[in-house]
Amino acid sequence: MAAVGAAPLLPAALPSTARAVASDRSGFTLVRDGAAVDVFVDAADDAAVIRAAGDLQADVERVSGVRPELRHTLPERATRLILVGTIGASPVVDRLVAEGRLDVSRVKGLWEASVTQVVDRPAPGVDRALVIAGSDRRGTVYGIYDTSERLGVTPWYWWADVPVVRRDTVTLPTGTFKRLEPSVRYRGVFINDEQNLTTWSHRTQEPDKNIGPETYKRIFELLLRLKANYLWPAMHPYSDFFNKHRENPELADRYGIVVGSSHPEALLRNGVHEWAPWAEEHRGADGSLPLYDYTVDPGVISDYWRARARQNAAYDSSWTLGMRGLHDSALETRHATTVPEKVAVMNDIIADQRRILAEEIGTAAQPQIFIPYKEVLELYNAGVQVPDDVTLIWPDDNHGNMRQLPTEAERRRQGGNGIYYHLSYWGRPKSYLWLDTTQPAKVWQELRRVYEHGADRMWIFNVGDIKSIETGLSFSMDMAWDVDRWGADDVEDFLAEWAGRQFGRLHGREIAAIRTEYYRLAAELRPEFIARGLLSAVHHGDEAGHRMGAYDRLLKRVRALGTKLPETYRDAFYELVEYPVHGAYLMNLKYYWADRNALAVRQGRGAGTNRFADLAEAAHADEVAITERYNTEVAGGKWDGIVNPYPSQIPKAPGRPSVTRVARQDTSGLGVASEGNETGVDRALSFSSYTRDRRFVDVFNTGFLAMDWTAESSHPWVRLSEAGGSFTEQTRVWVEIDWARVPEGTHDATVAVAGAGQRVEVPLRVRNDGERARRRVRGFVEAHGYVSMDAVHADRRVARNGCRWRTVRGLGRRSGAVEAVPSTAVPVTTDFTTEAAELRYLVRFATTGTFPVTVFRLPSLDERGHRRLALALDDQQVTVLSGQAIATGNRGDAWARNVEDGVEKLTATVTVTEPGDHVLRLFMADPAIAVDQIVIDTGGLPTTYLAPPESYHPVFSPDPVSVEGLDSPDR
Q1: What is the pLDDT of residues 701-730, one digit of tens each?
Q2: How far apart are the C-alpha atoms of 25 and 387, rounded to whole Å?
Q3: pLDDT (tens digit, 9 = 90+) per residue, 782-814?
Q4: Which one of 95, 212, 321, 501 has the fewest beta carbons within 10 angstroms of its own beta carbon?
Q5: CATH 3.40.50.300, domain 670-770, yes or no
Q6: CB atoms within 10 A of CB 772
Q7: Rg (Cα) of the chain, in Å, rounded?
Q8: Which CATH superfamily is 186-481 part of?
Q9: Domain spanning 515-636: which CATH class is it, in words?
């Protein structure tokens, strides 16, 4: 692609704390007229810097087609030069610093900081140089990759096939450009549950290995381009353990990556692969195999750990202390059965490991970490003594909710605190391994809370196979570098900027909007969590159909955008945008049609039953086909095996749903089921002049022969989408009210459906309070037996005692959620009306009584505290609602339901003694509580997976007309 006309496709601005602090118009030209500026790095600089300088050399060639020379001695004469060096390791850089010609303020002496600056006459014979200088070796490496990004080479150029826009002339601004010290010291990933990555690696990278050095080279480079510095390598039985190939730790050290190990892999030992052969070689005197149980064979285990410490002593490593069972199982202690006994054993284990590290490595054995994961957290809370210089790594509940955060005393620890956070997970209650489905706003909310509680030493993200987590990983690393860059209102701005860097500024905002809606739908229900019968096809205008309609509209946006991109972007677009949306759509679609098939059986449909079965199976076949395309066609088959919802050895996404077919009968018959009824028409269709609803009536054939049908309404102000015709299967008739013609008051009406010698009357209940009442109302209005409110739509917010409720855009099931902040605030337990931050919602009730109020709280945990909020109506007594604070790890209990649904429903009651205007008040009790929706059941509200549509509000929801669902055979 020529540079002319390509500007809208050029990358957006560089992210994070890399900042241009001055500029002029002249620019620094790297390539012109087929010649590229040489790259110099001193041969005495760190190997990681010299290697990354080679990547800069390659990146310049990717952009321009011209490869610069990589030099280790200064040229005798040069007009321009790229000069790369680390402060303290590059004599020429140190001289420029000493002379005051290189601005290293807020860089020198800091962690991984860098400066990029144009310097005139930096060395004899060199007129001008673009100097890239780092405070340490990784600081220099990040400065190099910053330059690559400014040239237009995204970190995902290889891992997501993002094309590099070619230019004949390559020029960078001359302003001083700094990347300041990161918010979090160690930032990295855990490659886990990596069967697909292993399959792909074996097929395409190293046929004689199952993830080896060639694959890790690609991973290390990606991490550094993302400004990460830390790795827990792949560790499952189907992958080669990291130390099996001696090149792996050597490569990591040469790239500048710190290698650690996960919670079950003490002192870099992979128990899955390494313990059995070690045990075989260290049988007891009686020939018995030692056990991986410190209360049984401590000496053999200690020697096992010592051997690895000695082997990896020379590398930049992170040392995991403590112990669990082999392959992520619970700690085994045959001779310690009580919690206090197990605490004592853990203390002995840590002391032994510390002694090993001191003897084999000395003071260089840093960082050391302790991960209180699962049952080890219970032992830690019961009294495990972790040395002060060891970093505590706090785990989430595997579903993105931090279990507990450091206390004030723990925040003062010399070793500090970090987190282990899941963007992908295998385990109870359900796994999500296929697609990137955790909302960035959710990640933002939890990471912001983590940072405010002083956990800033190490952030590790479980990213599964890497592929499909591209966006979530990029956002997490961006947060880890500069936690203050993105606020509660602008997480979508990250998506726009990130998409702009991949696909050009012209398309960044639209891709961000697509991804935001994709994440919102996943927040309602992750595609991996879909199951039979979760969503209603009969209530609230077809709850499941509305959701599928949203997916359908989203996929149409994706396809429309895809046609606007040049052909060179199609592979990247498929990987990063189209496949995730299309895959999630089809996973939902096949279960939607399967549920419609099951409902059709209950309703006694004929030909339509089989049609729904066909549609369910076709959706599954389409899903298989798009995955096949990803693996065999995209990028010429480069990603063979990398994406698979149905791997053989780890949890699978829901597969083909079962369906039922009915035998053909050469008959016809009339069937009618109106909205709100699985079968029949007993529940009347409800209409309100506030919400101005649209309701459906399904008219269907109980046989297989074509039949004629008609529909007519009892009143002229009842409008029907169709009044009759002929069908073999079914049709869906939409019923609306002409509010300009209907008299004020409450009316009963009917829609009569006739066909095949039968007639069915569908009852309607229509309430018209008049246009004047609709214009004058101030708050949410009760209708259809409920009031439904998005929590962000408070009529008033009251801050108290330094606390407030803030909106977090893109969080939860709707457009955003409200969160009680600051996260470090002191909980409120009494005097809520005068002490607690408050939300107020104006509500107009048409009925009186004592009504349930359900608050949809986004799950969050505090295993050493509580998860509470409070509510009241008007000046009535305040009720405290207590949410689940502990992650139990069990299937089917409250915590499991919360993480599967993405919400916790907390219910209290309020009493309305008089119809009219009232104020529902929501109070903060514990900080960092996030609320998504609030629903008041005033009578007859059906139980559904999602909250009902938002009620009428003159400002926030002035026209809550039901949107159409999926185009289907019911149309």
Answers
A1: 999 999 999 999 999 999 999 999 999 999
A2: 55
A3: 999 999 999 999 999 999 999 999 999 999 999
A4: 95
A5: no
A6: 9
A7: 31
A8: Glycosyl hydrolase family 115 (3.20.20.520)
A9: mainly alpha
Residue 3 has pLDDT above 90, yes or no: no
The candidate with the shortest Cα–Cα distance to 832, out of 865, 792, 866, 879, is 879
Distance CA 631, CA 634 (A): 7
Judge whether residue 5 has pLDDT over 70.
Answer: no
How many other CB atoms are found less than 10 A from the CB of residue 875?
9
pLDDT at 12: 47
Q: Which residue is it, tokens 């299937």?
A: 891
- pLDDT by residue (tens digit) across 875-921? 999 999 999 999 998 989 999 999 999 999 999 999 999 999 999 99
* Nearest Cα residue to 193 out of 426, 400, 469, 395: 426
The CATH code that applies to domain 28-179 is 3.30.379.10
Edge-to-edge strands of the sheet including 177-179? 18-20, 177-179, 114-123, 126-134, 78-86, 39-41, 70-71
Does CATH number 3.20.20.220 belong to domain 778-937? no
Tell me which residue of 150, 192, 187 sits closest to 167, measured CA to CA.
150
Judge whether 612 and 579 are in contact, CB under 8 Å.
no
Which bin fits 945, alpha (ψ -120 to 50), beta or left (φ > 0)?
alpha
Best CA proximity match to 222, nearest among 193, 244, 197: 197
Cβ proximity of 905 and 946 under 8 Å:
no
Do the domains at 186-481 and 670-770 have one common CATH topology?
no
| Helix intervals (H) in 396-489 | 408-411, 440-452, 470-481
What residues contact 923, with CB distance under 8 A and at least 6 apart? 828, 832, 833, 836, 837, 838, 839, 869, 870, 871, 872, 878
Residue 289: pLDDT above 50?
A: yes
Cβ atoms of 703 and 666 closer than 8 Å = yes
For 129-168, the pLDDT digits (tens) are 999 999 999 999 999 999 999 999 999 999 999 999 999 9
Strand 368-370 with 391-395, pairing:
parallel
Residue 782: which of 876, 920, 904 has the closest Cα?
A: 920
Q: Which residue has the tokens 């009294």?
A: 383
User: Which tens digit of pLDDT belongs to each residue from 43-61?
Assistant: 999 999 999 999 999 999 9
pLDDT in tens, 477-498: 999 999 999 999 999 999 999 9
Q: Residue 529, SS3?
A: helix
Look over the chain and give the mean of its residue pLDDT values, rounded to a whole number.
Answer: 95
Q: Where are the domains of the chain?
A: 28-179, 186-481, 515-636, 670-770, 778-937
> What pLDDT does residue 22 have?
41
Q: Would you call 485 helix, strand, or coil by DSSP?
A: coil
Look up residue 72 and give its amino acid.
Answer: H
Going by C-alpha positions, the residue among 747, 888, 807 that lies closest to residue 377 is 888
